[in-house]
Amino acid sequence: MKTKGIILAGGTGTRLYPITLGVSKQLLPIFDKPMIFYPLSVLMLAGIREIAIITTPQDQPQFQRLLGDGRQFGIEITWVEQPAPEGLAQAYVLCEDFLDGAPSAMILGDNLFFGHGLPELLKSAIQRQRGGTIFAYRVADPERYGVVRFEGNRATGLVEKPQVAPSRYAVTGLYFLDGDAPARARNIRPSARGELEITELLETYLAEDALDVQIMGRGFAWLDTGAHASLLDAGNFVRTLTERQGLQTGCPEEIAWQQGWIDDAQLAERIRLFSRTAYGDYLRQLLE
After folding, report:
1. Mind giving me the DSSP string for 38-80?
2. Which residues form the Nucleotidyl transferase domain (predicted)?
3. 177 — pLDDT class (breaks 50, 70, 90)
């Protein structure tokens, strides 16, 4: 079965108050594009065309105004409501009907990934038919994240926001899991904070030696934009790449056109929409 995608774009964004009192975190700008364009582009780079986007009921109309049904990107978007934020693993329960037994790639709506060879890395994870694949990234402040415990080169455990971290490798917000994920998520008991923890779900795979932990090396960048400083850092990072290289990061129109999911005429429609922006100029250069 083909892998389907999930973007978790719900939650209340309380760490970004007062910015997010009036707008969803995942609709905030990262330099010249809405935040959700970046995780959406990651799934598209993996070749995934069926994508469920999880939002709060009150924010969903704004997301739908931005993305519609996805046809402008040659993809199919299914909208799923999250009535209350009850943990990352809740996403698999909410998307059980959408997945219908298919394997999935779930990405958090506030995560940005960049690096040469990223599409190949993603597609290699998709080829793993059973079990799951997650990606670990070295960070200076592992106590803020879920952290991988290693014995030698083998991952032996996952610890959520440890006071004393067993390693400096944080689990990024990108998870490739097989079709068993919804059933496993249903069997998880809520944690002390009343949430279905993603680390507990992943540990069910790890206990069966069915979880592959891939380390993202120096050639990759992973940014979590859930705090004010990291939001600014992400914008500056994208601006630097764009202005230094003249290349876009997180551009779904470009990915769709290069994959052959949309044709020149469909790309030209997007160019007309953005005709007064540098983003539109960039898309125009693709055709020229």
Report:
1. HHHHHHHHTT--EEEEEE-TTTHHHHHHHHTTSGGGT-EEEEE
2. 4-238
3. very high
Q: Which amino acid makes up residue 254?
A: E
Contact 39, 140 (CB under 8 A): no
Any idea which residue has 């279905």 for tokens? Answer: 196
∠ CA 24-247-280, nearest 5°, is 65
SS3 category, 101: coil
* Angle (nearest 5°) at CA 225 between 223 and 229: 100
| pLDDT higher than threshold 90 for residue 151 | no
Residue 232 neighbours by CB under 8 Å, 6+ apart: none
8-56 tens-digit pLDDT: 999 888 888 998 989 999 999 999 999 999 999 999 999 999 999 999 9
Are 110 and 7 spatial neighbours (Cβ–Cβ below 8 Å)? no
DSSP classification of residue 164: S
pTM score over 0.85: yes
Q: How far apart are CA 53 and CA 51, in angstroms?
A: 6
CA angle 62, 224, 164 (to 5 degrees): 140
d(CA 162, CA 156): 15
Distance in Å from the first CA to the final CA of the chain? 37
CB hemisphere CA count around 116 (13 angstroms): 3
| Contact yes or no for 42/106 (Cβ under 8 A) | no
